[in-house]
């Protein structure tokens, strides 16, 4: 089932796969300014935002971290947990109070290995999100650092 990356997990996974994943969800909250993870750290969990906002950022030598994308309701926070070496490629910070569902990456990877159809659905969902994030990062970095920006008219 293909859905746009911004559609969220509810549209990306079948009802049964969504139910199975949500069985392992743990409700968490973060205060504004909380760092969820740092670039290079161990990616051992991921979140789906219920309320609030989270900025994804990237270290830039000699400059403040560059915000790559701002995430909100029903969006996936973290994809590095799915791919070896399971290390964060970006950082993340709550820009407002956040409520989210948290998932243990080891448990979900095990579910993916045990059920190839479930694994394919999760991989497609996370892959769609990853492709969207890479496009966003490219555009944002060009806007910040290229002489003429990304060239986007938007």
From TrEMBL:
Pfam families: cNMP_binding (PF00027). It comes from the Bacteria. InterPro entries: cNMP-bd_dom, cNMP-bd_dom_sf, RmlC-like_jellyroll. Residues 9-78 form the Cyclic nucleotide-binding domain. Signal peptide: none annotated. This is Cyclic nucleotide-binding domain-containing protein.
